[in-house]
Structure prediction request, 134 residues.
Amino acid sequence: MRSLKIPIFISFLFIILASLAWAEGLLNGAQKEFFDDGNLKAEKTYVSGRLNGPFREYYPDGKLLSVGIYKDDKLKGEYKSYYENGNLFIEKIYVNGLQQGTSKEYYPDGMLKSEETFQDDILNGLAKYFTESG
Prediction:
């Protein structure tokens, strides 16, 4: 009788390794998250247990995925996300965690794909959509 061998693949998306400070039972300080291969996945800062300050997220190959700022666990100010080729994918503005103003999305080649206006996270006003050829 032949035995059937079935390959089993188990992988964790990432491993969190961090040097974190605790104050009064709340997370404080810089945190770094790593993929299971050791490459940096994210950099974040906590103050009194809440995300506060700039953050950066990375693709597994180390290229920048996104950047932004948190204030009391809510996105604040400019947020940008990038394609793996390094070109800008999305740029948005947040106020108290809600999308405000003009949001732009781009095709992988850098051409503008859409431009939308938001107020309190709701599409409000002019929206423009473009084909890959412009």
In short: Residues 1-19 have pLDDT under 50 and may be disordered.
